[in-house]
């Protein structure tokens, strides 16, 4: 044992020829003996910070798997913090001090102190967006399965109001995401039938002229889409305001636009298949004359017949 300690002591540096104040000189075989100093953490108090750190590393290296930090070792290392000032550079063992605080100043059981850190086996996404979105979909599915059917007791007959009283029809879009300003969620559509606006023929003509290609002459409806603003409510406000301006101009008959004809879209007629006479059809393609193949087949037939005659009795 003595020889092993002498090999270990060669790593420890000497910091002062004079013993520290209030401490007795080291005696061979005692606690202050450099050969056994790393085994006695309670004797580290008052030593320079660098020496305490080297003793700590030496203790960890020598004990290997059997190493377990003690309260005396923790106290000795933490006591070196007071000797450091802001002007001095940070020492390399700052991380080791935090490691001691984590191991000895928390609620870690005594059996698990000094053991490697346990890693979680739970797969975690960095930003957490995918699990959050998955939980939201699961919550919506759970509500649809268990809570929405309970609303049946509040069921009432639906009596829609006449279309002349509520002519406007607004269509919203949603992809069930929290982002309401994307290109899909902010898009809206305003639809209204011309027959529900109670306009006379002159006003209807002016309305069609002003609406332009927004009016469908086949279905008799006016359609207006908007996605210029970031929120759907803003787009609805713009579409409704624009429609009211158009309706007010249509009802104002100071200028009837009677001399302007309607520009209806021309519907393309379906092409009727033409039945050509049979004589005009292309003749069937001629089969190629495989003269070489026919000659080879005839020669093989002659040879086969001659061979059969030679072996026949």
From TrEMBL:
Keywords: Ribonucleoprotein, Ribosomal protein. Signal peptide: none annotated. GO terms for molecular function: structural constituent of ribosome. GO terms for biological process: mitochondrial translation. GO terms for cellular component: mitochondrial small ribosomal subunit. Pfam families: MRP-S28 (PF10213). Residues 158-281 form the Small ribosomal subunit protein mS35 mitochondrial conserved domain. InterPro entries: Ribosomal_mS35_mit, Ribosomal_mS35_mt. This is 37S ribosomal protein S24, mitochondrial. It comes from Candida viswanathii. The lineage of its organism: Eukaryota, Fungi, Dikarya, Ascomycota, Saccharomycotina.
